[in-house]
Amino acid sequence: MAAMATPSPLPPAPEIPTTFSTSLRSWWATNDKGSAVAERRLFHRLPFFRAETVGKGLNDSPVVASSSLVMLDKPKHFLNTLAITSTKPASDAPPPVVLLPGYGAGIGFFFPNLSALAQWAGRRGSSVYAVDWLGMGRSARVPFTIKSQKKDIPGRVREAESFFIDSLEAWRTKMQLEKMTLIGHSLGGYLSVAYALKYPDRVNKLILLSPAGVPRDPNQTTAPEREITDNPPDSGASSTKSAEPATKRRVDEIHVEQAAAKPPRNRTRQLFMYLWEEGWSPFQVVRSTYFWAPMIIGKYSSRRFSGLTEEETRNMHSYIQHITLSKGSGEYCISHILAPGAHARMPLVDRIAALKIPVTFVYGDHDWMDPEGGEQSVENLRKAGNGEARSYIVNDSGHHLYLDNPKAVNDLMLRELDRPAV
């Protein structure tokens, strides 16, 4: 097989803006081409990414990775996709894994997890895909509209969910996948469950990483703004601690921490919740600062991803800046799916018992998502005759547990992927 052409070297990520002038220059340089380059900087760390296979035949590696924009049937609709495929596919391979990011995030967030999942794909002769939701990441930023009236909660929820899960189904059809194991983070976890409820024959397993919208939360113990203000645990990504079953004691400990971190109901929070109900998004607020936006994003990147290396943090900042400052689209779903306080308008705990597949809930021990929802969902699934549900706590990690403690999350994901059905 012919060797692949030598790719042009990628320019290093720029420094994170700390002054108005550097923020202005960074804002001016934000565009679709820059977004693609920023994403590729993250994927170039993978030795099996196609740009790193120069001089080698594809069969020299158990897997090969490539990225593309997968066009859907609707005009101008496409989903940004990273495909990691086995070079020796097995006839008895398990269904492929599909990684789905959270609210306003993108598939680049999963870069610390891709090597471990690629090893699984090579060992099992299967595939792994990371896919940006429609209207987020580097997927098509098409208009997001809801026709249902504000009082029609089920209608609003149904339309908002369908915007995403129907495009995922169109992607699955285009990719000719019979079944998939979905691994979703935060809103991606919520939408993974919604997809499985609507297309049950297409899902093999669900692995839900700090999923949003699971419990009923009348006391509003969580806060939606923490999607962009969340801090990492002190130990960062260097942790060697693993995951453990979500016992009542551990769940209670997390509740105590969440209650202590609950933001006060001051004017700023009241304004945020008003804007939430009116259909604004946190990212729209950031974009509205214009030239200051890269510096605001830089402060978040430097704080939230402090466990990464300096170069990785710059790469993540560049990536986050580009996808955050892109045209608003799917992000406007949030007020239709989640009420202020980040609890679902139609909680998954009341709907999940219809699933007949293995479901795994995973939370960080410093998470701001409520693990009690996962525990109650496991119980509801068991009462409905599904004994294939589990719930875990990952130590030394917060909401972005797959970044905070990637080794523990990777080990748990691989264990759950290979766990045979009872």
From TrEMBL:
One of its GO terms (cellular component) is mitochondrial inner membrane. One of its GO terms (molecular function) is lysophosphatidic acid acyltransferase activity. It comes from Mycena alexandri. Signal peptide: none annotated. Residues 246-256 have a biased composition (Basic and acidic residues). Pfam families: Abhydrolase_1. Residues 214-262 are annotated as: Disordered. This is Alpha/beta-hydrolase. Gene3D superfamilies: alpha/beta hydrolase. One of its GO terms (biological process) is phosphatidic acid biosynthetic process. InterPro entries: AB_hydrolase_1 (IPR000073), AB_hydrolase_fold (IPR029058). Belongs to the peptidase S33 family. ABHD4/ABHD5 subfamily. Residues 95-406 form the AB hydrolase-1 domain.
